[in-house]
Amino acid sequence: YKRLLLLFSICLSTFCFIQTSHAQDTKTQQPPKDAAIFKFKDGETYDFGTIEIGPEAPHTFEFTNVGNQPLFVTGVTPSCGCTHVDWDKQPIAPGQKGHISLNLITTEQKGFFKKEVYIQTNAYIPNGDRRYTIYIKGNAVKKK
């Protein structure tokens, strides 16, 4: 019984060590040498702050392709139907700038919100995710 318990403990410890090592590897993973890479001018989250419910709230994410391959954005999908999107459809060459424009429909917001916007792209995506994600957030209040 003691041998079985010892063997189980060794197996469990080894599994935990492997999982921890893998998690650390994905966090420190560097982009491939031949890749398109996003660099957003003002970060990957835009905070509208306190906005009035009623008018649409626009924001444009500006990015630069800091990689050495052309960057393609093949689709941009907000996490809800409350955001309209548009983006540069042509390839973004290395060193060039691109844009993703959003219009948040504020009449569908109440109070604090945080929304995701998913980007389908050939660019390097950190942490092994399937799509690149940017965010918008804020606090929607009634007109005074």
Question: How does this model look, in words?
Answer:
This protein is α+β, with helices and mostly antiparallel strands and 144 residues long. It is 18% helix and 42% strand. The strands form two sheets. A four-stranded antiparallel β-sheet has the order 1-3-6-5, with no helix packed on it. The chain has a four-stranded mixed β-sheet with strand order 2-8-7-4, with no helix packed on it. Mean pLDDT is 84; it is low at 20-27.
Mean pLDDT: 84
Low-confidence stretches: 20-27
Tally of alpha and pi helices: 1
What is the number of strand segments? 8
Could you describe the largest sheet, including whether it forms a barrel?
Answer: 4 strands, antiparallel
Task: Kindly report how far apart the N and C termini lie.
Answer: 73 Å
With strands numbered from the N-terminus, the spatial order across the biggest sheet is 1-3-6-5
Following the backbone from N to C, one meets helices and strands in this order, namely: HEEEEEEEE
Structural class by secondary-structure content: alpha+beta
- Beta-strand content estimate: 35-45%
Q: Can you tell me the overall shape?
A: flat
Helix percent band: 10-25%
